[in-house]
User: Fold this.
Amino acid sequence: MSTAATFGHKVRAIRKHRGHTQEKLAQLTDRSVDAVSQIERGINLPSFETLDRLSAALNTPVREFFDDDEAADVEQTELLAVANALLRDYPLKDLRVAVRQLKALGERA
Assistant:
């Protein structure tokens, strides 16, 4: 998957997780709905300014949009993006519980 496509899938997954429509994200970033759509579809990559605005609007560090597993498919890319967004929102004590649960799941496999 190309960098633009991976980036777009992550933006869309996090946007949906945050409960935003493309219209709402466009408002939050002061961009057009068409611009948001093109980013999400991997047609265009955002400028640095837009990237900064996306990061702020989605409460997601810029680096998380670019963390990439070359072998990941679309579903895995989107699930990892949502998981990161979820974990980022947890208070420390809940994050500890979540990590223990993930470790337990890994031990079952």
The chain has a mean pLDDT of 90.
